[in-house]
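I have a small job for you when you get a moment. Would you make up a two-line entry for one protein for me to read? No commentary is needed, just the two lines. Write everything out right here, beneath this request.
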Amino acid sequence: MVKEDWQALLEAELTLDTGVYTKHALLLVRGQGARVWDAEGNEYIDCVGGYGVANLGHSNPEVVEAVKRQAETLLSMPQTLPTPMRGEFYRTLVSLLPPELNRVFPVNSGTEANEAALKFARAHTGRKKFVAAMRGFSGRTMGSLSVTWEPKYREPFLPLVEPVAFIPYNDVEALREAVDEETAAVILEPVQGEGGVRPATPEFLQAAREITRDKGALLILDEIQTGMGRTGKRFAFEHYGVVPDILTLAKAIGGGVPLGVAVMREEVAKSMPKAGTAPPSAATPWPWPPGWPPSATWSARGFGSGRRSSGPGLWNSSGKSPPPRSGRCGGWASWWAWSSRKRWPPTLSAWKRSTASSPCRRGPR
């Protein structure tokens, strides 16, 4: 690609895009593992990782092979028609989870996984109210946005789904007061990632499990960021000794392919009316293998073994140490590392000064 071509293509993206995202003035053309290259040949360590999507790195050979193989075999098939790829994925996923979580609902993204969880909760309980945490982030579509705390995300789109009660994170008494006989579900992240990294205390998540069970409400745990080996175990809830009624996963579960799931108890799944919720393209068979390459890929990375490299604020291999300390990057990294030429990406002149030593910031879902 000659320089004139890439400059024209970069200009096309910058000018024809809606402008919803603030874009960096560089054109990334390829990636391998943890590194990416721009059109000028500059090499970068990619600490964005697709905002948590690229757990297996860019162009992972097993992921690439799985995508190619499936694209050549069967590219589209609705959920009404079973496929072996979907069955294999379901079977593998539930084998990694507690036996209570044995029903899988596929979607395309994290926000859709949370949308589905909220609908299943209402269908199962017959109730309307939700309880969520301040500074929590569940997504930007209308239902998920309703249980997302940040006012700047919510206010332009009011009215949203109601009623929703927001409580301080890790406040057991506030949670106890908020959950009542009208509550359909409590939705929480085991580790909050909006504007920092704040883990739940064991007391808080364990109380959430006890309170919801006593009140007849469901417990939804959002592991869209923390799932798939990010905290030293496959799923962060394993550190806390609780099992949710619904678990939502996305990002890393697809290995770079748009994929999300809501995994739930059988009795919750059976509460949804036929065709009560159905994202059509989520049934496409080809996303399933990429996020689930052969077991060698998983075992080589120690996923689920409890092993993790040591570092400030991280769980140790025993799983008995405290969760990451608030404000630490923990399982996430900073936005960008320097390039091989020690040049910061364009438009980021202030980034080095403002974020080089600050807590991580979370990207969109």
Q: What stands out?
A: The first strand starts at residue 28 and ends at 32. The two ends are 31 Å apart (CA to CA). The chain has twelve helices and twelve strands.
